Amino acid sequence: MNLTAKLLLNSLYGRFGMDDEFIFTEIMSKKDFQSWEKQEGAVEAIVDLIELGKKYLVQIKSPVQLLKTTLDNAKETHNVNIAIASAVTAYARIHMSQFKNNPLLPNLYYTDTDSLYFDGPLPSAPRKQWLVIQF
Prior knowledge:
The chain has helices at residues 2-17, 30-37, 42-45, 82-96, 127-130, and strands spanning 23-29, 46-52, 55-61, 108-111, 116-118. It has 135 residues and is α+β, with helices and mostly antiparallel strands.
């Protein structure tokens, strides 16, 4: 159950903080590429172009207006919110700060938003003696 909760929370956190400009890779015939290239903003969206015989492998960094989808009348939203991702990161740093340089705990080697790595076991004392912040 802890693993499931951790995966869900990390997935939501990552979803809010992701970059919403994706790179798409397409293989096009040279004729299709020439007609596609004439679209407004197409040339600026090309990241890489590799010739493959009679075709091109094209990597495109598409702005939202060039995305072609069949849902929502050809509009796509990514539900990105940097403020939420920043708040989660800031709160995690505040929460993890209680473990840094704490004389009641073993040496801390690494901490992330959801993990800690010590050089020994945690003390068996009740949590209230060595945790300052509780949920």
